[in-house]
Design a protein that fits this description.
Layout lengths: L5 E7 L5 H12 L4 E7 L8 H9 L25 E4 L2 H4 L11 E4 L12 H23 L8 H13 L2
Parallel strand pairs: 1-2, 1-3, 3-4
Helix pairs in contact: 1-4
Length: 165
């Protein structure tokens, strides 16, 4: 019998780049073991076009990806989260909402590709560089054995992944 998927929310301030990539990657590589979501404290309202381009280039579906508020995840109808991971330093320093399910919380720090300045070539390069870093973290996460997905072990495992970046 298969365990229900681990529900993971990735948070960032704008929810336009890093958290979106993490959501897409975990859903893609997680093969039903994970159900990933993303949100932001101050959502940008649209997904960064270089993120969409990068995901399309590596053939990861962008269907359903959208910039949304973390308020969607504090309602009675929201999924009960197992893990909340902030992926930007601003969101890590904000006071997060109270999650109904008391999920394990962790912070993984990544540069913001949406803040890249210069021509499209520079923005594209930064997006792909950060994508590679996020993909590396996600691959480590999905490589954890199922017995690691209990709160007392998961917190330590996620911290180890964060420090090993």
């Amino acid at each position: 019998m298969q365990n229900p998927p681990l529900k993971v929310l990735f948070l960032c301030t704008g929810n336009s780049a890093r958290s979106i990539m993490a959501e897409a990657l975990l859903n893609y590589y997680g093969h039903g073991r994970f159900e990933a979501f993303s949100a932001g404290s101050k959502p940008a309202g649209q997904v960064n076009p270089f993120v969409l381009e990068t995901l399309n280039d590596v053939r990861i579906s962008t269907a359903g990806l959208r910039s949304k508020s973390w308020n969607e995840f504090v309602t009675a109808r929201a999924p009960l989260l197992d893990v909340v991971i902030t992926v930007c330093d601003n969101a890590a320093n904000e006071t997060c909402p109270i999650w109904y399910s008391a999920p394990v919380q962790q912070h993984w720090s990544f540069d913001d590709p949406a803040a890249a300045q210069g021509p499209d070539m520079v923005k594209r390069f930064e997006t792909r560089r950060v994508y590679s870093e996020i993909e590396s973290q996600i691959r480590k996460f999905i490589a954890l054995p199922d017995e690691s997905f209990v709160p007392e072990r998961l917190e330590t495992e996620l911290l180890t992944i964060a420090r090993g970046k």
